[in-house]
Amino acid sequence: MAISHERTPAEDARGYSDRARAERLTGGGTNGNERLTTVVGATLIVLLAVIGLTILRIGQLLSVHLFVGMLLVPPVLLKLSSTGYRFFRYYTGNPSYREKGPPELALRVIAPMVVLSTLVVFVSGVVLLFAGPSARPTWFPIHKDSFFVWVAFMAIHVLGHLPSMPRALRAEYSRYGAYDYEDLGGDVTGRAGRVLALSGAVVAGVVLAILVIPEFGPRLHGIGLFHHHH
Questions:
Q1: What is the pLDDT of residues 46-82, one digit of tens each?
Q2: Which residue from 199, 182, 181, 159 is spatially nearest to 39, judged by alpha carbons?
Q3: Measured between alpha carbons, how far is residue 105 from residues 76, 96, 158 in Å?
Q4: Model-level pTM?
């Protein structure tokens, strides 16, 4: 015979506390996903601007190029994860994501090239960093050409999202966001989790870049060759 157990007020309070904690970390639904994508995208714009500056002075800034390139890997993976999650939930028929609708047609059309060029430019960059000089004739042209293709598609991607970025960032980080729902989209559910995800990605990128600094030496010694090809 089964023995029924009525929940005590303390157990109810503990269950509510657990749910509230989980909500702060993983809640937010479609708005949370959009805001995570936006804040990661804004971070990537800053880091990519630094990469762009290093390209202009690659002879003097190769070490910065390598460091920021490695730092970018976890945030880029987080961005691909957040956009991939929206894609998956929409095309598997999740009601909330279906109601929100897909991204604009132009952004959906270029999305495969954004993802593909992102993967190629980062994989080729990592191979160039770790492989010996024998890999340079093959992988350097791939890295250089894919970088320019990537920049072109990323520019379109960023411009497509730029108009909605300020409002989403304001809604996420404004101290009035929790109260002024109409103006700022004030639901900040899951914000703690989004802050943790972005912070974790940036910290992981810094740690990764620091760990591979010993690999920079051989590349810096071959700077003349690198600069010549650029």
A1: 998 899 888 888 778 888 999 999 999 999 999 999 9
A2: 199
A3: 22, 19, 15
A4: 0.76
